[in-house]
Amino acid sequence: MESHSNRYCVIMAGGIGSRFWPISRNSRPKQFLDILGTGKTLLRSTFERFRPMVPESNFLVVTNAAYCDLVLRELPELTREQVLCEPIGRNTAACIAYAAFRLRAMDPAAEMIVTPSDHFVGDEAEFRQVVDECAAFVEGNGSLMTIGIEPTYPNTQYGYIQADLSARVTEDICRVKTFTEKPGIEMATAFVESGEFYWNSGIFLWKPDTIIGEIRNSLPDMYELFESAAPYYNTPQEEEHIRRIYPECKAVSIDVGVMEKAQDAYVRCSRFRWSDIGTWGSLYEYSDKDPEGNVVPANVALFDTKNCVVKAPEDKMVVVENLEEYLIVDSGDVLLICPRGNEQNIKKYLEEAKFRKGDRFI
Amino acid sequence: MESHSNRYCVIMAGGIGSRFWPISRNSRPKQFLDILGTGKTLLRSTFERFRPMVPESNFLVVTNAAYCDLVLRELPELTREQVLCEPIGRNTAACIAYAAFRLRAMDPAAEMIVTPSDHFVGDEAEFRQVVDECAAFVEGNGSLMTIGIEPTYPNTQYGYIQADLSARVTEDICRVKTFTEKPGIEMATAFVESGEFYWNSGIFLWKPDTIIGEIRNSLPDMYELFESAAPYYNTPQEEEHIRRIYPECKAVSIDVGVMEKAQDAYVRCSRFRWSDIGTWGSLYEYSDKDPEGNVVPANVALFDTKNCVVKAPEDKMVVVENLEEYLIVDSGDVLLICPRGNEQNIKKYLEEAKFRKGDRFI
């Protein structure tokens, strides 16, 4: 493994996900939490996952301006200039456009890895091999590279990438046939059975010039906005122009806005364990369990309790008797107890909290 | 209602009950908690219940030395001299002996009401009428007076007083036939069906001389110990002698040690609502409930939840879905979730907490 001086890693950390309420809050979204109980936040884990492959000075983190300090606290290796502040969330296309314009101005030979900040990756050695292979491929032919994960079940919350298995470039790299947003359960089942569809990991590799060209083709208004600030990237005026540009940008994902229309995209078909940990259910799935199937920290005493998830402050003693398949979350100022299968209800709880107390617990 | 200058109220507040763990702690037992959610601790409620009948300067509170400051904080109307500090718990006989010797030395004409500090009384006007009637009876004939509560069901955790209904002194005052400690369920059922048995409220009225005479008869060793300090009650030496006496005293309840053997005891058969609130179950029974039978403070949002008890800090938001007959107690540093019927298990939880963390959560 070697670090490449013109390889850059762009970590997208602007999310304000509420699906882990009451642990995740507007003031501290999921990427800033140790949601898996590993001792590290998801953002920190993401940084450390890429650090063997990318020099520390080549990381960029794109986040909401409100989280800039949180990012620097989590990643003290970075300088303030490495944190790109969005004045307002505009989904991943704008986020990636901003990072690409900045990078092109910094280093015309840059290679750019884009990654979410809040996902789980199980097999880090295999992961690094996949990324290295993708980076080599991008270096050679300047195309758009995606990482697909062989699906283990028909997840309806993921996007899917259809690989053209008849157009293999290497053993594991194929041309992309289609990108598909969250399918229904029947379609997801058919996808998985076909053997052609892969979960879209949200990790992309390309050169800034390549993706900027695609944005110019597919999102010309957005291209013009970022291009209008061309003289100011990496100058003290950059943030002022970004504050001007962002509210004008359409909020659209890179998948829908760009990738679905791209002609020259490839997918690296991969098998490492991965999850977007989008819900308490996926957290349960990817966490270590005790012999009764509970995901609990050491400060929890369970009696006759099975398949539960308990989250509580480390210095709190928790005693639970006779529950099955429950979620128990003590965030300090909020306590939530509900069936683990009711996670679609978290929005309802959030609304109740908002109705009662305004933004205090949101 | 009038205050009587030689009427004294002795509040017994030395308990270290653990049945309300994790809310009750060694550092803050039940009498110092607002366990019923009325806005007042049980000790404060007891004081206010008797205040219309007893001058503030005529209250004595007997408690463990460790709780002296807690008592004075709860009852700022009292002076330090009104708090009798036990160096060690020795059950109610020693507690009452101490208060009786102190009172006799203070005021030879004293009439003494003894009351637990941590019980619930529902109908305060009726309660005051009962107490006044008892006090008048004691004033007239110098006997031992107890207050019995007409039982509404066969509680096996209460002591019972058998009234000699053939020996009525007034409509509601009878001679006592027997005192009985906690009966088994069959005996309790027979007691209730007989119509002769009353719950022992633990409230007694007598003159200090009378109860000291009974202690001399039934617990001569204890009598000698307290008599040996006779010159020192109400002097700066009192506490030093109490520290000498207490470890020598037998730990025995006033019921077993004295009342069971007394020849001249009476019971006022009463019908006000009363509970010793000895368990979460009795707390549930005597608390206000929402239409689904839940006992919950205002900061709790329930969905599909019935017959639960929730206790949590006032500033905490609690959301519960789909539980029935559960007890949820958040004491700040401990969270307990268990079936409401499992309250006999609280000892087990306490032991687990002790095993894991020593005395930290006890």
What does this protein look like?
Two copies of one chain form a homodimer. Chain A is of the alpha/beta class and 362 residues long. In chain A, 30% of the residues lie in helices and 24% in strands. Chain A is built from eleven helices and 16 strands. The first copy, chain A, has helices at residues 42-50, 68-74, 91-106, 124-141, 185-194, 208-218, 220-227, 238-245, 254-257, 280-285, 346-357, and strands spanning 7-12, 59-64, 83-86, 111-116, 120-121, 144-149, 160-168, 173-180, 197-206, 265-270, 274-275, 300-303, 309-311, 317-321, 326-330, 334-339. In chain A, the strands form four sheets. Chain A has a five-stranded mixed β-barrel. In chain A, strands 13-15-16 form a three-stranded mixed sheet, with no helix packed on it. A two-stranded antiparallel sheet of chain A has the order 5-11. In chain A, strand 7 (160-168) and strand 8 form a beta hairpin. In chain A, helix 3 (91-106) crosses helix 6. The longest helix of chain A has 18 residues, at 124-141. The radius of gyration of chain A is 21 Å and the shape is globular. The N and C termini of chain A lie far apart (42 Å). Chain A binds chain B through residues 22, 301, 303, 312, 315-323, 328, 330, 333-339, 342, 345, 348-349, 352-353, 356-357, 360-361, and chain B through 22, 301, 303, 312, 315-323, 328, 330, 333-339, 342, 345, 348-349, 352-353, 356-357, 360-361.
